[in-house]
Amino acid sequence: MPQPSGPRASFGTRFVAALIDGFIIVVVTTVLRLVFSNALAQLLNLVLGVAYFTYLEGSASGQTIGKRVMNIRVVDLATGMPIGPTRALIRYFGRFVSAVVIGIGYFWMLWDDERQTWHDKFANAAVVPTADFPVDAWPG
Q1: Spatial separation of the C-alpha atoms in residues 35 and 79, rounded to whole Å
Q2: Which residue of 19, 41, 95, 127 is most buried, as measured by CB atoms within 10 A?
Q3: Is 82 exposed, middle or buried (0-12, 13-18, 19+ CB in 10 A)?
């Protein structure tokens, strides 16, 4: 199998980071549902999810809380630099596309030359270890 153009985070590491971020989102959603109507809570959950992932993955660190715990970050595929908020937003909504067909977009990284998921491809991004792409400050 061809090797990626640089170091990449493993599927397992990315999965654990996603579980951590998912746990944070579930806790917030649960609190919102206790306080607001279900419809309003869903809307607020979407807004908070967009804000969380767009701000943190679009920051200079490219790290959500889960990625920070797992020592990985999102960077531009070609330059290794931060992707910025616009591409982080594209990547966020790309997650829904990755999940549509039994999650195949998430598993795509297992056989992709650059170890990219579909949402990585939409944003022209890669998830890399911080050991090889250090973070100066969090969130950046």
Answers
A1: 44
A2: 127
A3: buried
In the chain, what are the domain boundaries?
11-129
Contact yes or no for 87/125 (Cβ under 8 A): yes
How far apart, in Å, are the Cα atoms of 31 and each of 43, 46, 61? Answer: 13, 14, 28
Q: How many CA atoms lie within 13 A of 101 on its CB side?
A: 6
Structure tokens of 139? 């969130």
What's the rounded Cα separation, in Å, for the pair 74 and 120?
Answer: 9
Q: Which two tokens stand for residue 105?
A: 């977009």
pLDDT at 65: 98
Identity (one letter) of the amino acid at 8? R
Q: Residues 78, 82, 84, CA angle at the centre, nearest 5°?
A: 115
The beta strand positions in the chain, using DSSP E, are: 72-76, 125-129
Cα(20)–Cα(9) distance, rounded to whole angstroms?
Answer: 16
Question: Per the structure block, which two tokens stand in for 46?
Answer: 């979407």
